[in-house]
Request: fold
Amino acid sequence: MIIAIDGPAAAGKGTIAVKLAQHYGLNHLDTGLLYRAIGRLMTEQGLDLDDPEAAGAVARQLRPKDLAHADLRGREAGELASRVAVHPEVRAALVDFQRDFARTPPGAVLDGRDIGTAICPNADVKIFVTASPEVRARRRTDELNAKGRDVPYERILAEILERDERDSHRSAAPLRQADDAIRLDTTALDADAAFQAAVAIVEAGHE
Reply:
């Protein structure tokens, strides 16, 4: 079984994906880490994030070990990821990586922004996880503050809105809900309720 989960930043798709993978005994891939790793590697090498050829070259050399860095989960890495993800060269280089992972037995849950539309268009179940920008910004702000980072809510909201705009209007596999995906709005749901709603969607789509 392949489950594709897409959605904007801080909507809860990553948490849902991890729990679904554990629940069903499937492999899990946070595809956003691929783009975060490329952004980090380019920064380390002093390369221009807006150079599509350089970004594509780094993407073609990406290895699983490059996904193990703890700093890839940070907000800065997320911003780098959004910048390199606009390059068609990068996305093309990573297609096979993601599809091979999805085909590996016993199946997989992949979360990202173009899984149901571009990477696994024939996935058994597709879920588009979303929430209001204000709620997503509040979640991200609370998360950062809990880690000892004093980051203003207004700044995080502005960054989320900017990233939504960039991800939704890029030329290469823009963020959008697949026609056959089920929309899961987590605005009023906590993590457990969101997971239970996702399980219900999977069960209904896999009857």
Q: What stands out?
A: The mean pLDDT is 92. The longest strand covers residues 125-130. Residues 92 and 103 are 18 Å apart (CA to CA).
